[in-house]
Amino acid sequence: MQNLSYALRVLAKQPLFTSIVILTFALGIGANTAVFSVLNAVLLRPLPFKEPQNLVALGEFDMREKADPGTEIESISYLDYVDWRDQTKVFERVAVYTNQSVSTLTDGNQATHVQGESVSADLFPLLGVQPMLGRMFLPKEDEPGNHVVILSNELWQRQFGGDRGIIGRNVTLDGKQFQVIGVMPPRFTYPLRFTNPPELWVSMSILRATDDGSLPMTEQRDNDFFQCIARLKPSVSIQQAQANIDTITASWHQQYPQKINTGAKVVPELSAMVGNTRSALLMLCAMAGCVLLVACVNVANLLLARSLSRNREISIRAALGAGRWQIIKQLLVESTLLGTLGGFSGLLLAVWGVDSMKAFLPGIPRIDEISPDPRVLAFTALLSLGVGIFAGLLPAWRASQPNLATSMNEATRGSSEGAAGGRTRAGLVVIEIVLALVLLASAGLLVESFLRLQKVPAGFDHTKVMTARIALPNATYRSAGAKSVSTSTFKSGRCPKANNLSRKSTSSLLNIFRPCALRSRLAASSPSAMIKIRRRSRLSPRVSPSSISRAKIRSANASRRTDLIRWTSRPCAKSSVSSPTCI
Fold first, then answer.
1. What are the backbone angles phi and psi of residue 64, rounded to the nearest 5°?
2. Are 175 and 111 in contact (CB under 8 A)?
3. For 43-90, how does the pLDDT look when each residue is reduced to its tens digit (9 = 90+)?
4. Does residue 430 register a pLDDT over 90?
5. Burial 333-368, CB ≥16 within 10 A → b, else e
6. Has residue 521 got a pLDDT over 50?
7. Whole-number Cα distances in Å, 276 to 41, 44, 224
8. How far is CA 488 from the centre of its chain?
9. How distant is the alpha carbon of residue 583 from its chain centre?
């Protein structure tokens, strides 16, 4: 306590120096705390479900593209899920879900657009969650004709005022009557998407029947629009599960020609959710670490320079009997106190920094879970103590061995840091410059890569081309012909400044989601500028022939554009076309 009170008095006498050191520490610690907050929420914090370490994602990949996709797995068909569910012996439960996109929920005279999800009855038991009100889906409710819905807590509060009598009430969803059977707990959501989280869940029954008598999407082996999750049995490893899944997938190669190049992959649920974000976050951690090292070296240089002005004071303490360890301990208490104050200030900066990161990086998985928690606070506390000791150790060691005769003489003729002190400070300056150059070089490379990406030909003429997403209620526009009214509306003169209109079923000209078996190459402004068509499933994209001509895409290896895209007037599956788009 005596060392601490003395350190407070010494630092209070030099407010400018103290403020500069605290600010330097705050910038370094704040940057690292902000990055660690993201890393903690995305990678380190377990998923908010029962025994999350046993949750795995099941997906497929094109074996012609890569032998092992890592965590980049793709969606599957409902029939694939049925095979895995019925034939595997390594999972306690297997569930499937797919996005229902925007639906219109009507209750009395109130109507609102909501984000929905179709899920199998096993999903909630698999996750180990229970509704706050009501019950979960029953297995029989996956069969056609069972129109039941479970509401999120947020939708229940917003749309129904938290009415606990909502259970058993009928609501209208896209023109059909659904019975509310449950309300989920607060903050529960699944899947954990970073955009458009689901506000309600319906059973698979609505996808297992169609109004026009066509083949339901759940009966189409090619309709890869479903995500699959499973829970491993106790003592079953991911490698064992992978071997079991591979056996089932291999049988598809003989039974279904369209599956001959399909491979399957078992990935931990957290890894599948995070995907490529992991490497980006680790790189961000490395850069934040460089910033902290620069801050520590800078503070060490300041403390070393300050020890010169305290040389006489330290010499007097030594002459009065203070040992070297006592002097080092006193100086380390001062630097640790500075680190602690810098850490507190850095924590405040980190809170602001995390909010800014949420605004500028909306694509981070689990972004809503990013917040300070005990682990983040412990990290900040340990980091503050660590940088305080690290930055103060060398200056304390140097200052703890004063030359008493030289110090007394310097008191009469002015201070001089000496050759050894000068070399030490010069070395610290060199380290600072090197670390700063590393950061500048990394930032420069990122900027250069971004500029190069901007110059890469897009493969089509994007000048004066705009997109508009139009979500048409299924209750009113059930057929593909009715949905084509979106283009007709524009062409009828209601949008007089728009011309060369065409329709697509995806929100971008080339939907980059799933590799297509098609291996066509398109030329842009030069033969060397090639792009590859990628699509979400074998049923998409659905485009009008004018979409290719309007975008001025020309073929590099085919004489007709019909060789590149298989045109079809067949109506798209309900889930594959959630929002037709006009260009």
1. -75, -20
2. no
3. 899 999 999 999 999 999 888 877 677 777 889 999 999 999 999 889
4. no
5. bbbbbbbbbbbbbbbebbbebbeebbeeeeebbbbe
6. no
7. 15, 15, 22
8. 38
9. 29
CA 108 from chain centre, in angstroms, equals 38
Return phi, psi of residue 59, to 5°: -150, 180
Decide: 288 and 35 in contact? Cβ < 8 Å.
yes
Residue range 89-100: mean pLDDT, rounded:
92
Q: Helix, strand or coil for residue 70?
A: coil
Bigger pLDDT: 299 or 563? 299
Q: What is the DSSP letter of 475?
A: T
Torsion of the alpha carbons at 343, 348, 351 and 352, rounded to the nearest 10 = -130
Give the residue among 381, 360, 362, 363 at the shortest CA–CA distance from 372. Answer: 381
Q: What is the domain partition of the chain in residue ranges? A: 2-40+276-453, 65-260, 458-583
With contact defined as beta carbons under 8 Å apart, do 104 and 473 qualify?
yes
pLDDT digits (tens, 9 = 90+) for 240-284: 999 999 999 999 988 988 888 889 999 999 988 887 788 888 888
User: In this predicted structure, what is the pLDDT of residue 433?
Assistant: 77
Pick from 131, 84, 118: which is nearest to 265 by CA? 84
- The answer to whether residue 559 scores a pLDDT higher than 60 is no
Q: How far is Cα 393 from Cα 452, in angstroms, rounded to an integer? A: 45
Residues 134 and 313: their CA atoms lie apart, in Å, by 74
Cβ proximity of 150 and 200 under 8 Å: yes
Question: Token pair for residue 402?
Answer: 């004063």
- Helix (H/G/I), strand (E/B), else coil: 273: helix
Q: Taking the complete model, does pTM exceed 0.90, yes or no? A: no
Find the distance separating the first CA and the last CA of the chain, reported in whole Å: 72
Tokens 């610690």, residue located: 29
How many residues make up the chain in this entry?
583
Q: Is residue 203 a contact partner of residue 146, using CB atoms and an 8 Å limit? A: yes
- Nearest-CA neighbor of 121 among 39, 179, 202? 202
The b-or-e profile of 94-121 (16+ CB within 10 A means b, else e) is: bbbbbbbbbbbbbbeeeeeebbbbbbbb
The CA–CA distances, whole Å, from 498 to 348, 472, 481, 507, 583 equal: 50, 21, 22, 18, 9
97: Cβ–Cβ under 8 A, 6 or more apart, which residues?
117, 118, 119, 120, 123, 190, 191, 226, 227, 229
